[in-house]
Amino acid sequence: MDKNIVWHDSHLSKAQRSQLKNQKPCILWFTGLSGSGKSTIANALEAKLYDSRVHSYLLDGDNVRHGLNKDLGFDEASRVENIRRIGEVAKLFVDSGVIVLTAFISPFISDREIVRHLIEEGEFIEVFVDTPIAVCQARDPKGLYQKALSGEIKNFTGIDSPYEAPQKPEIHLKTDTITVDEGANQIVEYLQSKGYIC
Ligand code: ADP
Questions:
Q1: Is 183 in the pocket of ligand 1 (CB under 6 A)?
Q2: pTM beyond cutoff 0.85
């Protein structure tokens, strides 16, 4: 890093910005296979949070790849960089007092741990959207498994690239046994019980 670039401290603190919003900021880091339900549950949760006047922002995998990360591919180095940048952006949102939802496959434990350690203790909430691959393949909402199985897409998580499941996620959703609404409610209850929201 250029030694002439120094971090500029703001006059306002994260605590003050959070207090104004009456919430404790954090990152809800959704991880799971493609088609597991990350975006669907994150969107349902955002709607619930909005109704409760909670300030949140959803960073969605596909959307970020259209802009911020459009120069990145899907090889291992690019995936690591993809997650690193998202982590840094999410950290800025946390600093602004917002509850950030991220919906990325984020298949590697080490990458998720990098983000966990970017921010303060208790600010990283790992949400494991745990759906058997057979169910994800049957859903195949974007037709990606079909393309991966035919070889049209390479390095596809769960097919020819590994997915490392969280070992101790803060929240564990088994979407083959609960509805989208139940999944979103489970997260709201967690946030309330830990004092992130009222
Ligand atoms: P991801 O973001 O993990 O790639 P999506 O949310 O885009 O997955 O797709 C998940 C699909 O599974 C959606 O079509 C959704 O309607 C469907 N689905 C069915 N049951 C559930 C459930 N219980 N939780 C989440 N998604 C579900």
A1: yes
A2: yes
